[in-house]
UniProtKB/TrEMBL annotation:
Belongs to the binding-protein-dependent transport system permease family. CysTW subfamily. It comes from Zavarzinia compransoris. InterPro entries: Bact_Polyamine_Transport, MetI-like, MetI-like_sf. The lineage of its organism: Bacteria, Pseudomonadati, Pseudomonadota, Alphaproteobacteria, Rhodospirillales. It comes from the Bacteria. Residues 61-253 form the ABC transmembrane type-1 domain. It is found in: Cell membrane. It holds the Pfam family BPD_transp_1. This is Putrescine ABC transporter permease PotI.
Length: 272
């Protein structure tokens, strides 16, 4: 590989192997025909068929997707507002405290976040269920969206907004016509990132879910305590595929936005 010395290439290979070989082994044994997960009995889609006949796991998967979609959408709305405030209003009193409170969920241990939310819901006598899980997931996902949106707004040339307002556009119209299309890739990336984080969260979900509202990761975590079943390997493989698609989609959106921004900068430089 050009630009890498042999020792760096070996270190890189070892690092990728350390990260991805366990995942590849899990995917490999998801196609195992044997009931024993560590004994190869031939290639088969048997456990995928068994999985799609398991109503308990399919119900948990539906709850996970519904929860992730709702929490991601709310996180984008609230995170965009927070990112906008941090990027555009830099001198109001209490800004440091405000920024710290936005960033805190990024470094806060999940067990602390989950326990504090549990105490909150119990103290106000709010029955745990889908609503409490959506609030809990939104509380930590919106911080990631705020960081992504803030970084995009900081690099945004505000002279375009000023030019639109000089031509008579109201701040409201300027935001939806100029600002929103520019930060749209950041919003898409934030939504996909939030969806992925919410989809595989276990700790916070365990504290805030009620009876009958177990998500897929919680089901898997509970099932693994009694021993790994072949259906779990098949289910985990599907989750890996979903998360991989989300990460690839986010990368493609960011790359496309970067290419379009560089093209616009080159056109602006050529016209000046």
């Amino acid at each position: 590989m050009k630009g890498l010395s042999k020792i760096n290439l070996v270190a890189l290979t070892f690092g990728f192997a350390f990260l991805y070989i366990p995942i590849l082994i899990l995917v490999f044994f998801s196609f195992n025909d044997s009931r024993l997960v560590n004994v190869w009995g031939g290639f088969s889609f048997r456990w995928y068929g068994e999985l799609f006949q398991n109503d308990d796991l399919l119900g948990a998967a539906w709850i996970s997707l519904l929860l992730a979609a709702a929490a991601s959408t709310l996180s984008v709305v609230l995170g965009t507002v927070a990112g906008f405030v941090m990027a555009r209003f830099t001198s109001f009193r209490g800004r440091t405290l405000f920024s710290g409170m936005i960033y805190a969920p990024l470094v806060m241990p999940e067990v602390i976040t989950g326990l504090s939310l549990l105490l909150l819901f119990v103290s106000i006598d709010w029955g745990r269920g889908l609503g409490t899980m959506i609030i809990a997931h939104t509380s930590f996902c919106m911080s990631y969206v705020a960081v992504v949106v803030q970084s995009r707004l900081v690099s945004f040339d505000r002279s375009i907004e000023e030019a639109a307002q000089d031509l008579g556009a109201t701040p409201f119209k300027t935001f939806f016509v100029i600002t929103l299309p520019v930060i749209a890739p950041a919003l898409v990336s934030g939504w996909l990132l939030s969806f992925t984080l919410s989809l595989d969260n276990v700790v916070i979900t365990s504290f805030t879910s009620g009876p009958g509202w177990d998500t897929l990761p919680v089901k898997i975590f509970s099932a693994v305590k009694l021993g790994v079943k072949p259906e779990i390997n098949a289910l985990s493989t599907i989750m890996i595929l979903v998360v991989a698609i989300g990460v690839i989609a986010a990368s493609l959106v960011q790359k496309r936005a970067m290419v379009e921004r560089q093209r616009a900068e080159r056109m602006a430089a050529a016209e000046s």
